[in-house]
Structure formats: C-alpha cells, structure tokens
Write a structure and sequence with these properties.
Layout lengths: L10 E2 L17 H20 L3 H12 L3 H29 L1 H18 L6 H11 L6 H11 L5 H13 L1 H18 L4 H8 L1 H17 L11 H11 L31 H6 L6 H7 L1 E2 L4 H10 L7 H8 L2 H31 L4 H14 L4 H15 L4 H25 L4 H25 L8 H24 L7 H18 L15
Parallel strand pairs: 1-2
Helix pairs in contact: 1-4, 1-6, 1-7, 1-8, 1-10, 3-4, 3-5, 3-6, 3-21, 4-5, 4-6, 4-10, 6-7, 6-21, 7-18, 7-20, 8-9, 8-17, 11-14, 16-17, 16-20, 16-21, 16-22, 18-19, 18-20, 19-20, 19-22
C-alpha cells in the first residue's frame, strides 16, 4: 500500500465503482468525504447516546434522588430502543439507502436528546434514555454506507475504522460531559442546572451533522440509490461482460462508458460533484475515476451477487435463519454487547474500587476504554484484511480471527472478575488489554459481514448490530442483578464464560453460504 493512498483519489471497481483504497485525509474526494461522515456521524451519535452515564453515577443520581437499582435499570432501558431500531434500520437501508436512514436517525434522535434536561425523576429518566437510544441505531447505516463505497479488499479496514472511530464516542462522552459540567459549575450554576445545560453541546453537533450529511454526500458511488441496479448493468455492458444482473433488470445497451452518462436530477452523483472541477471529457474523467483491473469472473460476481436487492419478507427470513447470520449475531452480541454494558458501568466500577478518584477522575479512567476504539477496532479490521489477502482471499481466515478475539476477550474478562483489582495500575492494565481484543473483535466481525449475503448487506448488518444491542441488554441485566447492581467483578467473570461459549458454538459453520454468488 502506497502512502499516497491516504489522500489520492482511489482506484475503483469498474462495475460497482467501489474504492479499492481509503483516502482518509481527503474530504474533498467523495470517497474520503463519505468515509469521514460515516465515522463522524456515528461518533456524534454514540456520544449523544451515552451522554447520561458520565454524570449519572453521582450528580444526576443525587439530583434526581435515584437508587443504584434505578440507575442500572436506566442502563438497560437505553439499549432496548436501539435493539429495535438496529433491526429495522437494516432493511430500511436496503430499501431507502443508508444516507437517508443515517441522517434521519440523527435528526429524529436529536428530539429526545434536546428534551433530556426536562427529566426530574426515575420514570422521566427511563423515558428519556429509551428514546435517546434511537441514536444508537445509527451504527447500521454507518456500516452499510461504508460497505457501499469500499471494495472487498479494503472493506474490513474501512468498516473497522468507521465503526472504531465512531465507537470512540463512548470515550468522548466520558471526557467531554464532565468537563463541560465542571466548567458550568465553576461559572456559578448549581449542579441541577449545570448537568441539564451540558446536553446542549451534543444536541447542536448532532443536528449539524445530520443536516450536513444530507447536503454534502451521495447515496452510492454511482448516484441515486434507486438507480444502483441500472448502473451495475450498464457498467457490466460497457466492459463487454454481457450478462444481465437479474431477469428483472436487463442490461441497457448504451454507447460509451457509464462515466459519460449524466445522473438523474437530484441524484447527488459523484459525477455531478466532480464536474464543476473537471471539463466533461473522457480523458479528464479518467484522471479521477481510476478503474482497477479485475477479472471478468469477478466482474460477473460483482454485478450478479453484490448489488443490494430490495428486501422482501421471504428474502429477509432466509437471511435471518442462515447459520452464517446467526454466527455474526452471537459473536457481535458478545463483543459489542459486552462493550455497551461495560461502558455503562465502568466509571462506577472505578469509583467503587478507588473511592479517592471522585466522579471526574473515575470518568476519565473509564473514558480510556472507549477511546481505545480509535486504534483497537480498526486494528481488528486491518488484521482481517491482511489475513484475507495473505491467505489468497480466504474468508475462513477472517472467521478464525473473529473467534480468536472472542475467546481471548472471555479469558481476560474472567481474569478481571476473579482478581477484582484494587491496585489502579493493575486494573487499568487489565481493562486496556481486554479492550484490545474485545474491540478488535468488533472490527473483525464487520470485516467479515460484507462477504455474507452481500445482496442483503443491510439486513445482515442490521441483525448483527441488533445482536450487539441484545448482548448489551443481557449483560446489563447481569450487572443489574449481581448484588443489586454493585458486584461488578462477579458480573465480569460470568460474562467472560458466556463470551467463550457463544464464540465456540458456531465456529464450525462455513463463513459464507454454499453456492453464494459474490462476496468471496
């Protein structure tokens, strides 16, 4: 990989126009811009979704006169709406396109976020956190959008980076919310007023991000979401691989290349974005639309098996009962579900074992767990892509990496639970080491997801993401009922045993369904 790939316009797959590299540093390039909004949008959503926990342990708990059980209950409630939204968001992405779903969730979720300051009791807290949980569903369009713009050779890296940097919002909230709160208290506001004013910060950024996403980004690399089948067929025809994608969508015989075709009105096409900068000539377009050389067989696979289909009840049912989909649901339930549950209680765990830290310092140490996502989740995706290429494009290599991360995470959770460290460096070190494999497992999982039922990527991504939230609910319940929500150590080792068991139960299943077209 050349260093210039970090900013240069990427080579693209000639059929679906997906990028073959990730221009991290170039937001002026449409692939770089979609990459930026994918991770930034999810990071903002995650921050807003977890805006309560950093101040909940002491300030909000005292202000609303809550018990420890009510705080634990609110952590469970916050995951319930997200579970439903993620499940629905997957088919919605396949039907309407991930950009509209992503922006819609941000803007709709900003309504309960803006109403959070009116909470005055436990019941109000439950209602507020339930509806703010809508923002957690933004993970699904984040991953589907990223998958739609980056090809199989780098999709693991792209998805892991967007998901990992987005998950870092869980660390950002533990850093920003107490800092804003402390600054308001220093200016003379009471605790009850200060924590409510703190919510204005994530509210403004969430709304601005949703609007910018709609105004500045396209649906797909070829333009409108509704035209994705047509563009794949036309690109296939223009490269002399004259095989129709589906019987319902025959190849349209048009002269020239697809880059010559003007997009439909309102399509937000890449070509429309670029035409202001470039004269409308083939030679000039070739300078920014670099086609990668791929085999005729791969072109046919891409056109026939990797163009997302409009979801039907029958197709969704077949995908849901597939052992490959169930594998992703269970493993992501362990990795991301565990991360969600730990993220909600870690500040309280530090405060319990190290009372001298206080609310702000305990939150700062807990923030490390979320901030590690900046490196660890991308690491999971990068390693997955490296293994995939090193083993001759073997999806088994990606699957083994998922299971390995899960088992190591479980072992470290058991170790933390058994030791229950009261020595701060030991506690921090073990949590950080556990976080490496836990969060790398998240990245590894969604490095493999694009290979499974690629024609229904939204459905697979949505159900896998919902599985993560289901795990969050299950593990939050475990934390809730361990000595009335205060025996964190016991919950850690119980969750560790479950993590190892669930990762091994479907490890024998082939990574992709037998006979699947595309995704290999």
């Amino acid at each position: 990989m050349k260093l210039s790939c970090l900013w240069a316009a990427p080579d693209v797959n000639p059929i679906n126009r997906k990028a073959r590299s990730v221009p991290f540093l170039n937001v002026f390039n449409v692939y770089g811009r979609v990459f930026f909004f994918s991770w930034w949008g999810f990071m903002v959503a995650f921050w807003a979704w977890y805006a309560f926990p950093p101040l909940l342990t002491h300030t909000i708990k005292d202000n609303l006169h809550l018990s420890s059980a009510e705080v634990a209950n609110s952590n469970i409630v916050s995951l319930c709406a997200t579970l439903f939204v993620r499940f629905v968001a997957g088919p919605a992405c396949d039907r309407f396109g991930p950009r509209y779903v992503f922006a819609g969730l941000l803007l709709i979720g900003s309504i309960p976020l803006g109403l959070a300051p009116v909470v005055h009791d436990a019941q109000g807290l439950y209602i507020s956190r339930f509806f703010i949980g809508i923002l957690g569903g933004s993970f699904v369009p984040c991953q589907v959008w990223s998958t739609g713009f980056f090809d199989k050779n780098v999709v693991g890296t792209a998805n892991a980076l967007t998901g990992g940097w987005g998950n870092a919002g869980g660390g950002l909230t533990y850093f920003v919310m107490p800092a804003v709160f402390d600054s308001l208290v220093a200016r003379g506001y009471t605790d009850g007023v200060a924590w409510r004013l703190t919510f204005i910060v994530p509210l403004i950024i969430t709304i601005a991000t949703g609007v910018a996403m709609l105004l500045m980004c396209p649906d797909t690399p070829t333009g409108k979401w509704s035209e994705r089948h047509l563009h794949a067929d036309q690109n296939l025809a223009s490269h002399s691989s004259n095989t129709p994608t589906t019987t319902a969508d025959p190849i349209v015989d048009v002269p020239g290349k697809i880059t010559d075709k003007a997009s439909s009105t309102g399509g937000n096409s890449i070509h429309e974005v670029e035409k202001e900068k470039k004269p409308h000539h083939l030679s000039d377009q070739a300078n920014w639309d670099h086609e990668a050389a791929i085999s005729r067989e791969e072109m046919l696979e891409t056109a026939k098996g990797e163009v997302i289909q409009k979801p039907t009840w029958g197709m969704v049912a077949r995908v849901l009962v597939s052992p490959q989909t169930l594998f992703h649901i269970l493993t992501y339930m362990c990795s991301f579900g565990c991360e969600l549950a730990i993220n909600a209680v870690l500040g309280s765990y530090y405060a319990k074992n190290f009372p001298s830290l206080g609310q702000t310092n305990a939150a700062n140490w807990a923030a490390m767990f979320g901030f590690l996502n900046l490196v660890t989740r991308p690491l999971g995706g990068v390693v997955s892509d490296v293994l995939y290429r090193a083993t001759g494009r073997s999806v088994w290599a990606k699957k083994i990496w998922v299971v390995g991360c899960g088992c190591l995470t479980g072992a470290l959770l058991i170790l933390i639970g058994q030791l229950d460290p009261h020595h701060l460096p030991t506690m921090v070190g073990l949590v950080a080491l556990m976080a490496v494999f836990l969060e790398a497992g998240n990245g590894a999982n969604f490095a493999l997801v694009p290979h499974v039922h690629p024609h229904a990527n939204g459905v697979v991504s949505g159900t896998t993401g919902a599985g993560g939230n289901l795990g969050g609910v299950v593990f939050a319940i475990i934390f809730r009922f361990m000595d009335a929500g205060t025996d964190y150590a016991k919950a850690f080792w119980v969750i560790g045993i479950m993590t190892i068991g669930l990762n091994l139960c479907l490890c024998w299943v082939a990574p992709v369904p037998r006979g699947q077209v595309g995704g290999h």
